[in-house]
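Quick start: what a row looks like.
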Amino acid sequence: MAHPLDRPVWSALTGRQAHLALGDKRALRFDPGFALFAAAADASPGSLAALGGLNTSPNGLGMIEAVDPPLPPGAVVRSKAAGVQMIAATLNSGGRPVAFEPLGEADAAAMLALATLTVPGPFFEKTHRLGDFVGVKVDGRLVAMAGERMKPEGFTEVSGVCTHPDHRGRGYAGALMRVVTQGILERGEQAFLHAYAANTGAIALYETLGFRARTPVTYTVLDGPA
């Protein structure tokens, strides 16, 4: 039986985040205001054609799969990268705490601006609504944040981790990830995340928190309409 994290997008959109899904039983995608991720039900021609039909946003479609997925007919690949999926059932002790605060609708513009500047991954005008986010503010200005994204049953993804370039090297990313991960574990879930396989520095940080590599993944982004 396949693990739900082998196909995290499909698992999330057919489960706890079905209310954010567009499409049908052949293929699903997140509402593009929230995320660009999508998945086909299987590799059948009908499912792949349906997946291609969901590629209506200029931001395109993103796929994260443990097995390199087949593409819709005529799809144009914007990028493809090797990644690693990591999982944490417990949180390592240690780490330097920081003063943080929950983030919400009042912070939406600042969150989008910080993510646009630092590019931690796809982040759009409604991404902050996918789960709990926390941040560090300096003189009232948001300088670091971390939060939640995909939510397959029993799991929640840690994502949106970023720090303004002027405030890096102060341990904000690790501290905020620890806060988010602790919240996930306290709900009785396991935390997971995705990293580029080549980003060894980030992977080393995640390992200090208690994350361990679960499986390689392929992250593919298809171009959307012009």
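That is the whole record. The chain has a mean pLDDT of 96. The helical segments are 8-13, 45-53, 108-118, 172-186, 200-209.
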